[in-house]
Specification:
- By secondary structure, this protein is α+β, with helices and mostly antiparallel strands.
- The protein has 3 domains: 72 residues, Orthogonal Bundle (Arc Repressor Mutant, subunit A); 97 residues, 2-Layer Sandwich (Alpha-Beta Plaits); 70 residues, YebC, transcriptional regulation domain (Alpha-Beta Plaits, 2-Layer Sandwich).
- Helix content is 46%, strand content 24%.
- It has 9 helices and 10 strands.
- The strands form 3 sheets. The protein has a 4-stranded antiparallel β-sheet. A 4-stranded antiparallel β-sheet has the order 5-6-4-7.
- The model has no long low-confidence stretch (mean pLDDT 86).
Length: 253
């Protein structure tokens, strides 16, 4: 199991972003707006909007706030126009990084992202330089108490592709187009879903054997994630469990 997957799961389970809930809400609302603008406000025909709407609700964003974001996206309400832009680069130790942003000022965001990379031992790269090392997948996280056999039965009938034991959670992957139906099937079967989203998963990983290497990479990732315009950060590192546990304890102090 990838150390990066475990790191992401711990951050989710520990509520690391709760300290900046306002910032998290703002990022999710931007994603809803862009999804509505690009695919329309009808969730029945806009799978991306449907996924982002549910992601916002999972994070306890109020329904009326999400609805206003949809209306801004479709032009029913006035608002700032955000565009999607993606940056690629390398963290220390040659770790591949993809940064997805939603911004109203491409030049500002690009300069900020480049500065974060260069000031923290990394570098930006040309489009396509690292994206080939990732594949887009739907990922569902469920609590570990869900019975594996029952989970597999529902998953196999609903588009599930791979199931991983992550200690206190299950990670179930599927094709992005199957995420909505898979989540619905799991919930209809009485299985609680901690999170469900479309993400980029690395096809190969870079092992980071020392605590120093791991912390340098994690610092860069965290600084990117903290930027207001950054929606998602993906990387292909693998780090030891001991380092993950130590960093997770710092997150919740």
């Amino acid at each position: 199991m990838s150390g990066h997957s475990k790191w992401a799961t711990i951050k989710h389970k520990k509520g690391a972003q709760d300290k900046a809930r306002g910032k998290l809400f703002a990022k999710l609302i931007r994603q809803v707006e862009v999804a509505a603008r690009e695919g329309g406000g009808d969730m029945a025909s806009n799978a991306t909007l449907r996924t982002m709407y549910q992601k916002a609700r999972d994070a306890s964003v109020p329904t009326d706030t999400i609805d206003r974001a949809v209306k801004r996206g479709t032009g029913e309400l006035e608002g700032v126009r955000y565009e999607q832009v993606t940056y690629e680069g390398y963290a220390p130790s040659g770790v591949a990084v993809i940064v997805e942003c939603l911004t109203d000022n491409r030049n500002r965001t690009g300069a900020d992202v480049r500065n974060i990379f260069t000031k923290n031992g990394g570098s930006t790269a040309e489009p396509g330089a690292v994206s080939w090392q990732f594949e887009r997948k739907g990922v569902v996280i469920l609590p570990r108490h869900v019975v594996e056999d029952d989970l597999m039965l529902v998953a196999l009938d609903s588009g599930g592709e791979d199931l991983e034991d992550q200690g206190d959670t299950w990670q179930l992957t599927c094709r992005p187009t199957d995420l909505g139906s898979l989540r619905s099937a799991l919930e209809e079967a009485g299985m609680p879903v901690d999170s469900a989203e479309v993400t980029l998963m690395p096809t190969t990983v870079v092992p980071l054997e020392t605590e120093g290497d791991a912390r340098r990479v994690l610092r860069l990732i965290d600084l990117l994630e903290e930027h207001d315009d950054v929606a998602n950060v993906y990387a292909n590192f693998d780090i030891p469990d001991a380092v993950i546990a130590a960093e997770a304890s710092i997150l919740v102090e």
